Structure to design on (536 residues):
């Protein structure tokens, strides 16, 4: 699914998070929103998910205006920064949550839910942890469970907010490849937010560099490295 | 230095005092502090409890039980249980709604609302009772209309429920707000992105996460609702056998020098309170694993 962000702006009570920003994300791309904290990248991601509404501008999903669409109707798989796993549910129940929350008419039968959860646990290479609680998992495991939970609803796009932020360097490297593999396997249009330029450059097809609520540059990692469009991009990428 | 001497030094017992933790007090200070704590606890908590039960049983079990068996006493017990059964669910519902509103949404006037919720803690219950009389008494606009239509509030059960709800209003909300602030909105947002409706999110995500705080709040609210005196004394009119709750009855009996009857009723009220505490402790023991699992996240 391709995503068009058309002159999206967001004002909060006392500050402006986004100046009008436009961005076209081709179907199936793996895109990084890269920038320091306060650059508006998380706000943009939350607007895409429908968790936040823009002050002006439009979001188009496959060419259709989705600006007023509720979170539930957008069907965006969202991985939160701290994962936001349901702490009182087992891993299995976490992953099954979205399927069980569907209206009766479109809810898969129990056996089908079981099958899908098992398949997702295989996909994230953690087939043994279905009965555990989030508090009994390592940081890397939690991140992968959050990913599986987001994928379970058969999302139209995958959005990740600092998906590797809370992990140590070694796990971070492993999971980067994991995300790339899952993206390539599912073919989902994927947008992730990061402040780590290595992560963005290594993982993404397309990098959007943001600063102070504005898009500084959009391009392939190699283009951004070799031809930074502004001083900010040059400084940020070389730091 | 030979091996033998170094071995002896290594094995020599060190004076213990040197290894005392930096935060630990001297044995004397510890003994004094413990004595103070235990003494205070005995004098302020345990002694009054013991006295209540001792006074109640001063003329034996028979007299105590008999004093609770007469018509007025039974009416008081039933009334207190009824009021509690009405006021606690109301406040649980109000408390959840208020805490949900305050912690999951941003709006103007939030600080004012929090202050308003705390108001019953700072307003004297007697004043609260007088406010209810002014608002709903037979001489007021609303009260007059209600009395004319056969629904008196003051000097009747609705007034007592109102007074009790007012006085115990903050308990559930106060218990829930810090827990819900600490948990944040992320899990609810996650449930939203997974397609769940608001009601489903409340039942499957919010409520399970706050169930312990809700239980504590409800139990505190219960204990307070059973024991409320000031506001109820004003609005109830203290009609024996009709609007006299247990605390009101205890006061009336005591003023009439019916010591055994007064303390028997007091002992029963205390027993109710202890029962709620026991219930809470039992639930904690039974669900200890769950408690640990959910709090460690």
């Amino acid at each position: 699914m391709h995503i068009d962000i058309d002159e999206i702006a967001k004002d909060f009570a006392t500050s402006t998070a986004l100046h009008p920003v436009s961005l076209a994300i081709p179907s199936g791309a793996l895109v990084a929103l890269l920038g320091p904290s306060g650059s508006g990248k998380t706000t943009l991601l939350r607007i895409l998910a429908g968790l936040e509404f823009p002050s002006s501008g439009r979001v188009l999903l496959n060419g259709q205006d989705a600006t007023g669409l509720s979170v539930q109707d957008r069907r965006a798989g969202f991985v939160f920064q701290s994962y936001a796993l349901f702490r009182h549910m087992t891993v299995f129940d976490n992953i099954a949550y979205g399927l069980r929350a569907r209206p009766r008419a479109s809810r898969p039968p129990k056996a089908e839910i079981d099958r899908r959860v098992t398949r997702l646990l295989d996909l994230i290479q953690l087939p043994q942890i279905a009965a555990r609680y989030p508090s009994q998992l390592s940081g890397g495991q939690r991140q992968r469970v959050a990913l599986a939970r987001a994928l379970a609803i058969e999302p139209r796009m995958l959005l990740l907010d600092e998906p590797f932020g809370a992990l140590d360097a070694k796990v971070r490297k492993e999971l980067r490849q994991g995300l790339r593999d899952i993206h390539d396997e599912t073919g989902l249009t994927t947008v992730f937010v990061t402040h780590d330029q290595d992560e963005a450059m290594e993982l993404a097809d397309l990098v959007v560099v943001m600063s102070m609520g504005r898009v500084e540059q959009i391009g392939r990692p190699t283009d951004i490295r070799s031809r930074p469009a502004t001083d900010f991009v040059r400084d940020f990428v070389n730091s | 230095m030979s091996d033998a001497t170094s071995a002896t030094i290594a094995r020599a017992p060190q004076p213990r005092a040197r290894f005392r933790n930096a935060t630990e007090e001297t044995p004397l200070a510890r003994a004094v502090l413990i004595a103070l704590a235990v003494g205070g606890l005995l004098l302020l908590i345990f002694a009054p409890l013991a006295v209540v039960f001792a006074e109640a049983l001063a003329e034996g079990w028979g007299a105590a039980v008999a004093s609770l068996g007469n018509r007025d006493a039974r009416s008081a017990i039933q009334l207190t249980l009824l009021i509690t059964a009405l006021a606690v669910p109301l406040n649980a519902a109000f408390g959840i709604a208020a805490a949900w509103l305050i912690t999951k949404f941003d709006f103007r006037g939030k600080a004012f609302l929090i202050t308003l919720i705390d108001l019953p803690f700072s307003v004297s219950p007697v004043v609260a009772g007088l406010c209810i009389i002014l608002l709903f008494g037979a001489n007021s606009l609303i009260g007059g209309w209600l009395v004319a239509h056969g629904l008196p509030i003051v000097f009747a059960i609705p007034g007592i429920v109102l007074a009790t709800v007012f006085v115990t209003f903050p308990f559930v909300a106060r218990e829930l707000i810090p827990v819900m602030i600490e948990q944040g909105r992320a899990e609810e947002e996650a449930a939203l992105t997974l397609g769940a409706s608001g009601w489903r999110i409340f039942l499957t995500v919010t409520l399970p996460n706050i169930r312990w705080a809700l239980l504590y709040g409800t139990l505190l609210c219960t204990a307070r609702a059973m024991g409320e005196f000031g506001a109820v004394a004003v609005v109830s009119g203290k009609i024996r056998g009709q609007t006299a709750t247990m605390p009101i009855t205890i006061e009336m009996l005591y003023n009439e020098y019916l010591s055994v009857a007064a303390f028997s009723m007091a002992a029963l009220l205390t027993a109710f309170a202890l029962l709620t505490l026991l219930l809470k402790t039992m639930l904690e023991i039974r669900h200890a694993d769950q408690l640990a699992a959910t709090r460690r996240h």
In short: The interface with chain A takes residues 186-187, 189-197, 200, 204-205, 208-209, 290, 293-294, 296-297 of chain B (CB under 8 Å). Chain B has 15 helices and no strands. The first helix of chain B runs from residue 3 to 11. The CA atoms of residues 144 and 158 of chain B lie 15 Å apart.
